[in-house]
Amino acid sequence: MTDVLIVGAGPTGLVLAADLARRGVDALLVERAAGLFPGSRGKGLQPRTQEVLYDLGVLDAIRAAGSEYPTMRVWEGDVPGQEWDIMERAEPSEQVPFPDGWLIPQARTQEVLYARLRELGGEVRFGAGLTGLTQDGAGVTAELDDGSTVRARYTVAADGGRSTVRGLLGIGMTGETVDPKPMLVADVRVTDDAPVPDTHWHVWPKAPEGAVAFCPLPSPDGGRVFQLIAQYTDESARPDTTPAAVAELLAARTVLAEEHVAEVLWASDFRARAALADRFRSGRVFLAGDAAHVHSPAGGQGLNTSVQDAYNLSWKLAAVLAGAPESLLDTYEEERIPVAAGILGVSTRIHRSETPVRRGGELRQLGIGYRESALTVETRTDLPEDALRAGDRAPDGRPGGIRLFDAFRGPHWTLLAVGTGSAAPPALDGASVRTVTVPAYGAYGTGVFLVRPDGYVGWAGESAEGAVEYLARAGIVAGG
Q1: Which residues are in the FAD-binding domain (predicted)?
Q2: Residues 263, 186 contacting (CB under 8 angstroms)
Q3: Phi, psi (rounded to 5 degrees) for 79
């Protein structure tokens, strides 16, 4: 018996499990594989995701295990050519402390999240894949291939693009093949004398049989490890992922020789697809991450969107398990489907672009918000066009010497009174809602803002009048 069964211990499942653990929710995370995913696949964390990980208490470890993105070097055979920066870099500011993407292999991200989950008292049951699923009005019964049966009040499918749970539910996916040509991705350790400096992300756009990208990865043992992405011009090609074949490919298409390949740590092949699940909820079962949306790797959006699915859902599950109305869970699908659909369009556009697209702007995901959500209430009128509104990301800052991201940090709501001269109603200052009073501040102007546990403004007003009623309707506090 458990409150929440999470299927799949990738970034989505680990973030969800860790956040539920710090909220005191009994959750079981199961994973079919014998251990964590070993490869680099999703290697970039966007600024908004870094803010989520700061709130979860793991960003220092993530930063220590990663690095800034290197500049790119374009090659023709064994001749190095133009160098350029794929990143639109920005300086940190009070409102946006983490403005650029951060390079870290997916395996390292998962190791950090797993350590945080265990620190919070959680665990992963490895070697336990889901084989059967039924649900009724009170919960879900899941059958696992280790022979056990689990009864849970809710289940979350975080089991990837080929989701078993989604298949058992009969939920379809609407999408398209972004590129019919196959691709190969691998993590390759090279020798010290390999003629590719770690200071650059190396690209062979005109390589025979298909372009190659070779990106240096932060390695915990200090070794020279690169992520290889190889495209194939032949749609009927079948990428060979054996170590010998990967070394041969590098020798045929790049400046490297086979003897420069010391070890192939992991390899896989894929075709770029874009697909969106027809719905993200079926009764007491939810889809999150790749189980709900599959992206082209272009632009580094898939893992980041998945992490934010988990963060949107976790606090809502915890609130409903604590007594909030079941209707709160409807807002997960309402809020996340439009976001996922929009990001799928961005990834597909970048993949199909005939000219390189610099990474910045909308790829940072800082502009994502929920202004149209049923959870969003804006009571102020005649606001300037650029004003912060209910539904928007709540910016960081240090008004009156108080760091806002630290005030928001944790599983609570925050009632933030900015330049109003008075604090919020005393009834709201407790475990579920904390009140913070600061002077007027440019990013917020003046007003009162209810900041959700996932860092978005849920309600905004000229004063705190109406805040208690809003939270009561959401089931966060009693009364109203």
Answers
A1: 2-343
A2: no
A3: -110, 115
- pLDDT tens for 325-363 read 999 999 999 999 999 999 888 888 888 876 777 777 778
User: Residues 190, 39: contact at Cβ < 8 Å?
Assistant: no
Is the pLDDT at 428 greater than 80? The verdict is no
Tokens read off for 451:
């900041």
Q: Which residue has the tokens 């403005």?
A: 99
**CA pair distance 84, 72, nearest whole angstrom:** 5
pLDDT-above-70 percentage for the chain: 98
List phi, psi (to 5°) of 335.
Answer: -85, -40
C-beta atoms surrounding 234 within 10 Å: 10
Judging by DSSP bridges, how do beta strands 44-45 and 102-103 pair with one another?
antiparallel
Pair 199, 70: CB distance under 8 Å: yes
- Assess if CATH 3.40.50.720 describes domain 67-101+180-271: no
Contact 196, 218 (CB under 8 A): no
Three-point CA angle 391, 394, 395, nearest 5°: 140
Q: Where are the domains of the chain?
A: 2-66+104-175+274-364, 67-101+180-271, 377-473
What CATH number belongs to 2-66+104-175+274-364?
3.50.50.60
Structure tokens at 183: 């691709």
Q: How far apart are the first and last CA of the chain?
A: 34
Q: What is the pTM of this model?
A: 0.96
User: Would you state the CATH architecture of domain 377-473?
Assistant: 3-Layer(aba) Sandwich (3.40)
